[in-house]
Amino acid sequence: MSKRSVLVVAHTGRPEAVRSAQLVITRLSEAGIAVRVLDGEAEDIGCVGVQVMPRAAAAAEDAEVVIVLGGDGTLLRAADLAREAGTPLLGVNLGHVGFLAEAEREDLTNTVDRVVARRYDVEERMTIDVVVRRNGTVTDTTWALNEATVEKAERERMLEVVTEIDGRPLSHWGCDGVVCATPTGSTAYAFSAGGPVVWPEVEAMLVVPISAHALFARPLVVSPRSVVAVEVLPDTPRAVLWCDGRRTVGLPPGARVEVRRGAAPVRLARLHRTPFTNRLVTKFGLPVTGWRGRPHQPPAPSEADTGTGAGMGTELTRMRAPAPAPDARGRTAPPASDTGRTTHDTDEGAEK
User: Fold this and answer.
1) Least packed by Cβ within 10 Å: which of 27, 56, 59, 257?
2) How confident is the model at residue 301 (pLDDT cuts 50, 70, 90)?
C-alpha cells in the first residue's frame, strides 16, 4: 500500500499563510502523511522533510487532497495543478471573501484533523474550455473555473464584438468586454458586471456584457450544452482574453473566442454540507433580520387521536345523542342535564 500524501499550496506573500502552512505540515507529518510543497514556496515555508514539487500538474498526481492556504486567487492557482489529476482542493480562507474556500483560519486545526481522518466529501464544479481562432485556425486553447473574459486592451476605445450562441448571431455590442462564466464564477467577475447569482448545482453558462452601449445588453443564462462565441470585429482595437484573471491571450482584430462546457471538472473537498444560501449570507453579510422561517406544522392527528379508528366509530355513534328539535319559537334546546331540566327551563322560569 502506497503512503498517503497531501500537497500544500500557500500564499507565501502573507506571513499568516506561511505560519499556517508550517502548522499544517507539522500535523500531517505527525500523522504519517507525506507532504508536498511547490518549488518556490518551500524556501519561504522552511519546513524539513517535505517533498518539493515543480509547478506542474505532476505535483498533484496521486495526492489525496490539495490544501490551499490563502484566498480565492490562491485556490484558482492550485486548480491549475489539480484539475488534470482530478485531485480535490480544500481551501482555507486567509483572504477577504474566499467564496471557494471551505474553512476559515480559526478552523485550521480541525480541518487538518478531518483530512487525516478522511472525513470530507467531494463535489465537482463545472468548468469551461476556451478556443481562440484566427481565420479559422486554432491559435490558443485554455480553460477556466470562474470565467473567460474578452476585454478591450486599450482604455480609451470601445471594443466592438458580435456575440453568437449555438452558431447563430445574437447581438453586436460596443462594450468594455464580455464575461462568459460558470455557476461557480457567477459570484466573481460576472457578479460585479451585473450578472445573476447561480447556485453551483445548476448546470448553465452565463454571458454578461460589460458596460455595453446597446438597448439589449442583458445578462444571459444559456444551456451547458451551448457553444458561446465572441468575435472581435476587424475594425476594432485589439482585445485580450483573460481566464480566471490568471491566463491571458492577446486577441487581434478578427479573432474569435469559443467557449463551451469543460471536459474535466474541478473537484472541491467539502467539510460541511452548508446550503449555498447560508454561504451567500455569510460571505456578503446579507441582512436577514426579521426572518421567521416556515411556521412549524403540527403532525396530522392519527385515527386513534380522532377516535375514527376501527371499532371506535360505531361506539361513538351509539353514544352520540340525536340533535334536539327546535321548540315553538324556533329555538334549539341544548341537551338535558342530569336533573332533567334544560337551560330553556331555567330561562323561562326566570322570566316568569
Assistant:
1) 56
2) low
